[in-house]
Design brief:
The protein is of the alpha+beta class. Among the domains are: 63 residues, MutS, DNA mismatch repair protein, domain I; 51 residues, 5' to 3' exonuclease, C-terminal subdomain (DNA polymerase, domain 1, Orthogonal Bundle), CATH 1.10.150; 149 residues, DNA polymerase, Y-family, little finger domain (Dna Ligase, domain 1). The chain has 15 helices and twelve strands. The strands form three sheets. Strands 5-6-1-7-8 form a five-stranded mixed beta sheet. Helix 4 runs antiparallel to helix 6.
Length: 394
């Protein structure tokens, strides 16, 4: 049976912990990082969590649960700076580091025993180095595979270390609540409950064919996990998989012109990130959250990958026009996925010469703006449309 060589390192309440680190007056107090009165909680300190404050909770609800909650605006540059430092620390222990997000990563400890000892000793050393160099704490899960390591890191937060050895792996799986398995959402959990399944171990009471009939392809994956099988490797890949930008509006609105203006601003932010990372996107996604807090997404795959704000905006605007605004909108955003390196040549278009020419013209405009921003600072030149948000192009 495989030995536990996969580590999942997860920073504890990362954004909120950074704010408490930088401002001693916030230490020991209920803190939430969020975007204003109508925003949502991006992170909550452990003090605030005791009152029921959680990530993705609307700010007004968080205040109801914790009236003395301190709301701090996010400082993304500071978080990114510390994230880079943390990932560099991890790479000092192993060349195989797979960042999952700004505050968590997998580390493959296989073959590093002579340098850093056992995986347990390596986990302790990682925690010590991160605390010494950043002043922050993390929780580490260690297991024979990524699936179990990620679950283990969440068991003894904050500042915990949990090792699931090969000898206790099946016993751990037998008792693992099914809702803790990645991919098991509310609907899947209901279906499994109808089969009498409440723990991952109970999945083995059924055949793979039965699970596939109930759950589709995920049934096969669930059976593999129930047997402790997860062969997915730690992948060293620093390339972004997608980019997005969103905003929670000051007031709910059904004004399409106002929503379009926000779409243009979000499109420019996403396009800027794409060009900075030297990639283009083929899939554009519109993100909306309505007044009842329901999230809606619509996507479009383009015939050619793009990195210009105009192309992204037009795609997102088309998705917005096709969306029926039954309720007012409180959040709007744009995402770009299916990324492709700019080094990959674009396929020549035979029958879209005019569109191609227009796209190239907009790409030149964006690059000119990038050069101006680099020399004189961001926002010294803005589109006239964005100076009056209610007057966006339709």
């Amino acid at each position: 049976m495989a030995s536990p060589t996969i580590l999942h390192v997860d920073m504890d309440a990362f954004f909120a912990s950074v704010e408490q680190l930088d401002d001693p007056a916030l230490r020991g107090r209920c803190v939430a990082v969020g975007g204003g009165q109508r925003g949502v909680v991006a992170a909550a300190s452990y003090e605030a969590r005791k009152f029921g404050v959680r990530s993705a909770m609307p700010i007004f609800q968080a205040r109801q649960k914790c009236p003395h909650l301190i709301i701090v605006p996010p400082r993304r540059r500071r978080y990114a700076e510390l994230s880079r430092q943390i990932m560099d620390i991890l790479r000092c222990f192993s060349p195989l580091v797979e960042p999952l997000s700004i505050d968590e990563a997998f580390v493959d400890a296989g073959g590093c025993e002579r340098l850093h000892g056992t995986s347990h000793e390596m986990g302790l050393a990682i925690k010590k180095q991160i605390r010494q160099q950043t002043g922050l704490t993390c929780s580490v899960g260690i297991a024979p595979n990524k699936f179990l390591a990620k679950i283990a890191s969440d068991l003894n937060k904050p500042d915990g270390l949990t090792l699931i050895g090969a000898e206790r792996m099946m016993a751990f799986i037998d008792d693992l609540p099914i809702q803790k398995v990645p991919g098991v959402g509310a609907r899947t959990q209901q279906r499994l409950a109808g089969m009498g399944i409440s723990t991952l171990g109970q999945v083995r009471n059924f055949s793979e064919a039965q699970l596939i009939r109930r759950l589709g392809a995920f049934g096969r994956r669930l059976m593999e996990l129930a047997h402790g099988q997860d062969d997915s490797p730690v992948v060293v890949d620093s390339e972004a998989k997608s980019m997005s930008s969103e905003i929670t509006l000051d007031q709910d609105t059904r004004d399409r012109a106002l929503l379009a203006a926000h779409l243009l601003a979000q499109s420019e932010a996403v396009a800027r990130d794409l060009r900075r990372h030297q990639v283009r996107a083929r899939t554009i996604t519109l993100k909306l959250r309505s007044a009842d807090f329901q999230r809606h997404t619509r996507g479009q795959t383009l015939p050619q990958p793009v990195d210009s704000a105009e192309a992204i905006y037009q795609a997102a605007l088309g998705l917005l026009k096709a969306f029926e605004l039954k309720l007012a909108i409180r959040l709007i955003g744009v995402g770009a996925g299916n990324l492709q390196s700019r080094q990959v040549p674009l396929q020549q278009e035979l029958f879209a010469a005019e569109e191609t020419q227009q796209r190239r013209q907009w790409e030149k405009v964006d690059r000119a703006l990038d050069a101006i921003d680099a020399r004189y600072g961001r926002h010294c030149v803005v589109r006239g449309t964005l100076t009056e948000p209610g007057k966006s192009r339709k």
